[in-house]
Amino acid sequence: MEQQEKNVAALQGSLYCPICQGDVVLPVHFTCFPCESSCSEDYCVCLMCARRYLGFDLTRQQRSEPRKCLYCPCLVYRHTLLQGESTCFRKNRVYMRLDPKQYQCPLGCAFEGTQRALDRHVVDDCPFRTLTCECGESVRGDRVAAHRQGCVHYRGCPVCHVPVHLDAFSLHLRERHSLLRCMNTECPEIIRNDADVMADHLQRKCRYRLVKCKVCNRDAIAHKMGEHLTHHLQESRREMCQAADRLVMAQKEMTQAAEALSNDSENLLIN
């Protein structure tokens, strides 16, 4: 126990954050800098300070500038930062386990606890914790619902208006509202969970059903049939124009032939 107290005292005396110049709360070591002297192993910084220093409080598009090691000229570039927090720093769990002090939640909520309790709280429970969406954006926990409204991986339910993950969208419609998406994957229509209703939609109403063209006897998507027929009309007009041009040329040739024949006849009469 005495040795543990000495270890705690030594750690507390040596661990201060070089970024915020205060006690290290949730200490981490940078692992993304390619320092030859491994200088990142010689100091810890606060988890929140590390996130801000490396730009994890910014969107992926905003993380464009390289970051410099705090103690040497080594740089880490955007392609490494985009791989995520787990590749950029690791937690000093030894210090978390030995430190008996109580700390306030660094994210701003009312929670207070030891480093270990704080670590669990920040990861699992804090309403202000940062979550990474599939689209790559870092989103605060209390803003996840708002983010999902515009995220490409979610779609708003037309009935309850809750954003639902695309992989679970059909299941949500079927189990919550007894509805189904149209079986044509491109069609956004929502249909009542009834085989006859779905069949009627697919045969007569779906804008993405295949319809046979009466001109060329080929299949075309229903909502593009007008464009398809317009193409036929343009082709017909072009063919008619070409035929009219050929007719005009034929008339000219016939006129020239008739004039030549008339001239020959007059010459014969004169002779």
How are the elements arranged and paired?
Blueprint (H helix, E strand, L loop, with lengths): L1 H13 L12 E4 L14 E2 H8 L12 E2 L6 E2 L1 H4 L7 E3 L1 H6 L4 E2 L7 E2 L1 H11 L4 E3 L5 E3 L3 H7 L3 E3 L6 E3 L3 H9 L1 E3 L8 E3 L2 H11 L4 E3 L6 E3 L3 H46 L1
Antiparallel strand pairs: 1-2, 1-5, 3-4, 6-7, 8-9, 10-11, 12-13, 14-15
- What is the molecular shape? elongated
* Biggest sheet architecture: 3 strands, antiparallel
Number of helical elements: 9
Global mean pLDDT: 83
Please identify, by name, the CATH architecture of the largest domain. Answer: 2-Layer Sandwich
Give the strand order of the largest sheet, numbering strands 1, 2, ... along the chain. Answer: 2-1-5
Strand residue content? 15-25%
* Terminus-to-terminus distance: 143 Å
CATH fold field value of the largest domain:
Herpes Virus-1
Beta strand count? 15
SS class: alpha+beta
Tell me the radius of gyration: 37 Å
The CATH class label of the largest domain is Alpha Beta
Helical percentage: 40-55%
Number of domains: 2
Listing every helix as H and every strand as E from the N terminus to the C terminus, the arrangement reads: HEEHEEHEHEEHEEHEEHEEHEEH
Instruction: Give the uncertain stretches in residue-range form.
Output: none
